[in-house]
Amino acid sequence: MDLGLKGKRALVVAASKGLGRAVAEALAREGADVVVSSSNKQRCGHAADEIASATGGTCYGCEADMFAPQTMEPLVVRAQDLIGPIDILVINHVGPALGLAQAIDFEVLDAHYRMMVASPLRLIAKVLPSMRGRRWGRILSVGGVSMVHALPNKVMDNIFRPALVNYTKALANEVSADGVTANMILPGTFMTERVQDSTDKNAQLWGISIEEAMRQRLQGIPAGRFGNLTEFGAVAAFICSEQASYISGSIVRVDGGQTKTIL
Fold first, then answer.
1. CA torsion angle 79 83 89 93 (round to 10)
2. pLDDT < 50 positions in the chain
3. 138 forms bridges with which residues in the sheet?
4. Rounded-to-integer distance, Cα 13 and Cα 103, Å
5. Can you tell me the distance from the alpha carbon of 24 to that of 236, in angstroms, rounded to the nearest whole number?
6. Which of these, 24, 33, 191, 197, could form a disulfide with 83 (CB 3.0-4.6 Å)?
7. Are 180 and 138 in contact (CB under 8 A)?
8. By the 8 A CB rule, do 20 and 142 touch?
9. DSSP-derived secondary structure for 136-187
10. 88 sits in which H/E element
11. What strands, in cross-sheet order, belong to the sheet with 88-91?
12. At a CB cut-off of 8 Å and minimum separation 6, what does 107 contact?
């Protein structure tokens, strides 16, 4: 299937590794020109070079820190200087800090508001006018299971992910008639650094071995395995495609059946 992405211009945030990189690579394979960002200039530059080499596509790296919302507008400007007006914005960020609801660190809370709410909204505000003017755009945010139900030891996820879900739905209601879609993608468990780190910390919290914590995590996945990053990237690329123009204001799950709720 031709996804209609050849020549489209994509900015994928926090994409030097993990889920973000999987999306950037999938878009590049479909012929999109891609800019990947990371808080580390060397890391995002290296990722961009590897993606371009692997796909034969155009990919550039741009440094930007999601914890610093004031850097988001300049990031979009730099990306547009490299590839032109942004057609596809994929919002991602590092895994939020772990912690219990009863023991919030308010400095961490403020920092995560900047990363998980303020920066995404500033990115969207910067790219949206030109998308609406061209009557074509895709805004896709990477979320997590806490978008639909609270998770243990993940208070920052539980606070801020639902905020972006509701904003995304409100935005979709306003701009879908202009040819711009806004969606969330909900990943299950993929073997990333974030999964390894959270499993280690859960093992400490529950007083069990890392192996047992990982076994329990695997038990909760009906598919019986962790996800492959290429599977995640492929679904994200489809949501950003021409064919997905009637998907807007939705949460699309890529989780092997892991999420317990049906809605």
1. -40
2. none
3. 88, 181
4. 30
5. 9
6. 33
7. yes
8. yes
9. -EEEEEE--GGGTS--TTBHHHHHHHHHHHHHHHHHHHHHGGGTEEEEEEEE
10. strand 88-91
11. 59-63, 33-38, 9-12, 88-91, 137-142, 180-187, 251-254
12. none
Q: Tokens 């539980």 identify what position?
A: 158
- The structure tokens listed for 74 are 């300049």
Query: Which residue is associated with the tokens 């012929």?
Result: 31
How, if at all, do strands 59-63 and 33-38 pair? Answer: parallel
Q: Which residues contact 8 (CB under 8 A, 6 or more apart)?
A: 27, 31, 32, 33, 87, 88, 240
Go through 35-44 and write b for each residue having 16 or more CB atoms within 10 A of its CB, e for each that does not.
bbbbbeeeeb
- Each residue of 220-249: pLDDT tens digit? 899 988 899 999 999 999 999 999 999 999
* Residue carrying structure tokens 């905020």: 163
* Structural domains in the chain plus CATH codes: 9-190+228-254 (3.40.50.720), 191-226 (no CATH)
Could you give the maximum distance between any two Cα atoms of the chain, in Å?
55
**Tokens found for residue 10:** 């994509």
- Segments in the chain forming alpha helices (H): 18-29, 41-55, 72-83, 106-113, 119-134, 155-175, 193-206, 210-219, 229-239
d(CA 92, CA 48): 16
Say if CB 179 and CB 233 are below 8 A apart: no
